[in-house]
């Protein structure tokens, strides 16, 4: 039944510069934390979902959603995602049930419907003539991160995601942060802290089945493998702060 959204009338009236322009600009993986937060707030406003936890930059729900957007939807722009939700609530692409929760699966379904509509409407970005050396661009970005680290007085306002990127830039350019033993000590403490926080959050929200199941799976994975992106990034920010303190001293 999705073809009902791809009639000649709707395709003609909605194609044009607005969708092409939405593809330009910074990608999700490149924007700052404030931009991600504004995007989530707009999605909440459009869909009528009210969940304060999603706007708490220190909360697990916000971190999970931000990490998902950067990692799995990083090639989209803010405008593309906004347009996808605008079209859905306007009835121009299929409506996806949200069950009053904004989760990775919900965002994926909305974007899949939008991209399917866009492809069938033959809306494609103009090919770029400039050939970019990816490795040169990556090195340039790493050097920018290192220069930023050297000039910042404090790293407290950085999100753990931004701090982790800065940490990785330093490591990849041969600026090693502390030894293996010190890194393991920080990681172990953050792992214990994360497990405690996650278990408490699950108990506090035990009536919310989806949250309980999600956290339960994450806790199980951490206990079995010790691997969790949030724990790793928290540890990197702590180590980065230690290096900054040593530099200032």
SSE arrangement:
Elements: H1 8-14, H2 17-22, H3 33-47, H4 60-72, H5 78-89, H6 104-120, H7 134-151, H8 160-172, H9 180-204, H10 209-225, H11 229-248
Helix pairs in contact: 3-5, 5-6, 7-8, 8-11, 9-10, 9-11
Q: Can you describe this structure?
A:
By secondary structure, this protein is mostly helical. Helices cover 65% and strands 0% of the residues. The protein has helices at 8-14, 17-22, 33-47, 60-72, 78-89, 104-120, 134-151, 160-172, 180-204, 209-225, 229-248. Helix 3 runs parallel beside helix 5 (78-89), helix 5 packs across helix 6 and helix 7 (134-151) crosses helix 8. The termini are far apart.
Radius of gyration: 21 Å
Number of helices in the DSSP assignment: 11
Task: Give the helix proportion (percent range).
Answer: 55-70%
Gap between N and C termini: 65 Å
Q: Order of SSEs, N→C?
A: HHHHHHHHHHH
Query: Whole-number average pLDDT?
Result: 79
General form = globular
Main β-sheet description: none
Low-confidence stretches: 1-15
Supply the helix-strand structural class.
mainly alpha
Which range does the strand content fall in? under 5%
